[in-house]
Amino acid sequence: MFKKGTRIRHLLNFWPPFLFTGIRIVELSEDFRRCRVELKNRPWTKNANGTQFGGSLFAMTDPIYALMLMGILGKRYHVWDRAAKIHFEKPGVGKVYAEFQVTEQMLAEIEGATVAGEKHLPQIVTDVKDGKGDLVAKIERTLYIRLKRRYRPGV
After folding, report:
1. Using one digit for the tens of pLDDT, what is the confidence trace for 80-90?
2. Which domains does the chain possess?
3. Which InterPro entries match (predicted)?
């Protein structure tokens, strides 16, 4: 399933939590290293104040880093979201977006921290911005990454 980023992108865009909430993955690189997600402003994505609903802002970032890392690291690793929190900076008006990138440094840290079979809990911050590039929200996400039992040394 995680062989091609474009295939995963298309599948996720038809996934009901994205499809029915106005969330769309507009870019997912073949190597899973870059992703861009947009949230359209629809009547069902607005809050009582007429701006983007905070739950939708949060949801647009929910599975992205975990899925990207699953695509890169392959079937040897468990990769899950462990915790997350959102900091609202200004109301989201109109279409908003978030960009995600997995760097060589991130991968080196993951591999170094998990090589002996230990869990790794990296914290990643994602900015959600509006069409002008202004910061709307910061989402802090903690991932859980660990070699699956059968791939751990000494098991």
Report:
1. 999 999 999 99
2. 5-151 (3.10.129.10)
3. DUF4442, HotDog_dom_sf
